[in-house]
Design brief:
Elements lengths: L1 E2 L2 E6 L4 E9 L10 H13 L29 E5 L5 E3 L10 E2 L1
Parallel strand pairs: 1-6
Antiparallel strand pairs: 2-3, 3-4, 4-5
């Protein structure tokens, strides 16, 4: 997918629409994260095993089962304001294999 290097976007710090520079950021490795965030992530993972899983809580003899891994990871885009330099993270990532800035 091709995307422009800059786009006009609302900056909460400037309180106006300004041109933002778009960049993609790789996910940090767990070793670079703080101790507390690693603990929270571990607890979140444990909590996923509890509770009702909706349609996936049905007995094993169902017609459809979710298997396999996703084809692509979600993007992590950052928008940096050209006026004040403050950067914002995108609200929702989208799945894409390759992103090219034009």
């Amino acid at each position: 997918m091709k995307m422009p290097k800059s786009r006009k976007k609302y900056c909460p710090r400037c309180n106006t629409h300004t041109i933002h520079k778009v960049s993609i950021v790789k996910k940090r490795s767990p070793s670079s994260l703080s101790y507390g965030s690693k603990i929270r992530a571990r607890l979140r993972g444990r909590a996923r095993g509890t509770g009702n899983l909706g349609r996936y809580s049905k007995p094993a003899v169902t017609r459809w089962k979710m298997t396999g891994k996703k084809q692509a990871k979600k993007t992590d885009l950052r928008f940096q304001c050209s006026k004040c330099g403050k950067s914002q993270v995108q609200r929702e990532g989208f799945r894409i294999k390759k992103l090219e800035f034009t």
